[in-house]
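A.,

Following up on our hallway conversation. Structure tokens first:
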């Protein structure tokens, strides 16, 4: 029996339309022969693009990867609404699109410009009822499919940047590139933007262009013959600021002990990727008063991979 060496790191997948994020994880588990696989931010089956996936010890990085902002390109069909707020379900309602909206560009002072301003000012958002959010201990989409009415409270979420791309008047579509915070639903953006213009809307195309520091330029098809694996140190350094440990600091962090200020440079606030002098990831840690505390440690055998 051939023994397969464990793989530790991060892969950046260009998820195609069709499979779920869980499907991608399942295929990567089989490909790399490990159960330790986890993604950093779900993409719906009808969405494509950047999906960051941790392997082995790389799964310890997913809490930090999921905190990152994400950038999407989206096309919204105006005048129609579906139960899922995307093209994955039939149209359940229609409404007139305001005349003279002019979807080829944003007219200053017009309805579209005002709706965009409203969404940019938003600090909370109501997620779609058909989502994986838990409501009373059960996923909302499971309850909706049983015919229940599900109300999800608004949650903190916002748009960091919003750019309009030329849309079409027939059929009425609006296209955007938007960068959003963790927990933001682009399907809700379609619903709310349309409502602000006095109509309905749903997503017909959605592609994730970036997840934090990882962009479509980094991404590969998950069934590509060669799927590059970023080392733990490289992946951590792209999602967190870094600090370098002395030999004593490496030893203390490896045992989960507090690290002295003189053994960590810089000795700074907030989570940092702690690297050895050779560039291996030793731990994720942060300053707590006059000592550095380990938040997540990484095994010596995996940190150089």
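Then the amino acids I'd put at each of the 305 positions:
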């Amino acid at each position: 029996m051939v023994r397969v060496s464990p793989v530790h790191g991060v892969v950046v997948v260009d998820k195609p339309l069709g499979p779920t994020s869980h499907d991608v994880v399942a295929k990567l588990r089989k490909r790399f022969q490990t159960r330790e696989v986890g993604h950093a931010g779900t993409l719906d089956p009808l969405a494509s693009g950047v999906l960051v996936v941790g392997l082995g010890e790389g799964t310890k990085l997913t809490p930090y990867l999921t905190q990152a902002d994400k950038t999407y390109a989206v096309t919204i069909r105006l005048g129609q609404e579906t139960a899922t707020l995307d093209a994955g379900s039939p149209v359940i309602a229609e409404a007139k699109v305001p005349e003279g909206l002019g979807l080829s560009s944003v007219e200053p002072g017009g309805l579209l410009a005002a709706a965009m301003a409203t969404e940019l000012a938003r600090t909370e958002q109501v997620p779609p009822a058909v989502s994986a959010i838990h409501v009373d201990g059960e996923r909302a989409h499971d309850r909706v499919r049983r015919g229940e009415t599900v109300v999800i409270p608004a949650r903190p979420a916002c748009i960091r940047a919003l750019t309009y791309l030329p849309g079409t008047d027939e059929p009425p579509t609006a296209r955007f590139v938007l960068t959003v915070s963790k927990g933001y639903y682009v399907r809700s953006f379609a619903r709310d933007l349309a409502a602000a213009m006095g109509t309905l809307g749903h997503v017909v195309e959605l592609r994730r262009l970036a997840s934090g520091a990882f962009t479509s330029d980094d991404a590969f098809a998950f069934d590509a013959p060669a799927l590059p694996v970023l080392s733990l140190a490289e992946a951590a350094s792209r999602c967190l600021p870094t600090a370098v440990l002395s030999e004593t600091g490496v030893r203390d962090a490896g045992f989960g002990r507090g690290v002295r200020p003189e053994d960590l440079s810089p000795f700074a606030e907030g989570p940092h990727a702690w690297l050895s002098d050779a560039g291996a990831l030793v731990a994720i840690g942060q300053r707590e008063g006059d000592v550095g505390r380990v938040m997540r440690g990484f095994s010596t055998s995996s940190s150089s991979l």
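Residues 240-303 form a domain with the Archaeosine Trna-guanine Transglycosylase; Chain: A, domain 4 fold (CATH 2.30.130.10). Curious whether your intuition agrees with the design.

B.
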